[in-house]
Automatic annotation (TrEMBL):
Transmembrane segments: none annotated. The keyword Repeat applies. Coiled coil: none annotated. GO terms for molecular function: promoter-specific chromatin binding. GO terms for cellular component: nucleus. SMART domains: WD40. Gene3D superfamilies: YVTN repeat-like/Quinoprotein amine dehydrogenase. WD repeats lie at residues 164-199, 401-439. PROSITE patterns: WD_REPEATS_2, WD_REPEATS_REGION. The gene is LOC107264824. SUPFAM superfamilies: WD40 repeat-like (SSF50978). This is WD repeat-containing protein 13-like.
Amino acid sequence: MMAIAMGNLATLWYQQVFALDAKYNSQRAAGHANFGTLYIRRRSQLLREKYSKNPEVRARYLKLRSELLRRRYGGATDQSIFGSRTTIDEGSDLGIRSRTIARRSIAENFAFAGVHHIFDQHTAAVPMIKFANNDRSRLCCASLDGTISICEATTTPPKVMVLMKGHRMGVTAIDWSISNDLIVSSSLDATVRLWGVHSDADPVCLRVVNDQLRSEVLCCAFVPANNNLIIAGNSQGLLQVLNVSTGIYPRGGTSKIGGKILALTCEESGGSLVWAGNDKGIIVSFHLDSGSGRLSKLRRIDGIGGAVTSISWRSWLSKETPWPALLVSSACNTVYLYRVANSQGFLTIWRKYPVKHRQYLVRSTFCPQMGACLIATGSEEGAIHLLDSTREGKGARVNRLQGHAAPTIALSFNYDESLLASADQQGLVILWRNRQRNL
């Protein structure tokens, strides 16, 4: 028991020092993303290999390093402290600033102020991450290094459970089935793979299906009303429905919208609408028959201004805004919030927010808690912006998290919002802890 306790204390110290280093990384590596990533990974290695068994020495080290970094870089700019059970002393002016940011009740829902853990198992960009449905801990990460990882986020310490290999090229997207026993993945190798991920057995690839045009598959998702079906978009602008139980593309289950389909989303709660967006700045809505897999094109929405890199659906935002909405990231430095105007899936702009986004496939997401009008978006400056959708302009920003030294391109909340995961263009995944929630 004593050995276990000592091990837990060493892990806590490691997390505290690592969180301190991560907090200043954006200033240390300004304009040099590769250096920032290499520095963080090297620090992680050294902290694991070289630490004192004397708790007094560890405490003094943490205090001295905190003071030296504060003198070298000053206060961390425009960010709340990286607090939580793995953070440094919050008695500083940064702690006061973080409490000020969260002074409004709505901001308390987004009080993500602590680096809970950092994963570095991937060696290339992580374009998509997603927590399992109604699960606080299991996080799936898709990487352009060709692998998929499943992590446990609430263990002490968090850990990588498995690394799934099979795709011959980068993995572009993943999705969990409703029961969390299956994962679908798409890849630049022109295939879709179905994985069995039962908790009592090692993951196994159940099926590999080639794209109909032998093109790169850039996005995929399970059809909510029928998890035997998945929908995917490829680099030739073809949206296609696939029956993963049989490996067959059903008749009438394809439609072409042109360009490269970079993002898609499905209406949930038994709905039949699907939206797909491409690199030309076009979103098209479809009706999907969840029984037969037949797709019918409905409406085309133009004039978005840049490539559509992320689409998310929400049944309603709040009592004041009780209509379905789409959250859209576009490579024109903008995140759009659209109202779904009719049963054809037509969209009308309700809000738009500026965010640095021109080159990479930056994603955004709704928070999972119903009744809270909160959204999160990555950015090419490496920051994560947390926004209140009831407000406009600069007044909408509730919080801003900085820890990535490369563009932040993927985000996911766990279902109770106790954790937010973010991933960047260099393959780093950070878990942020919500100080208002218990792990």
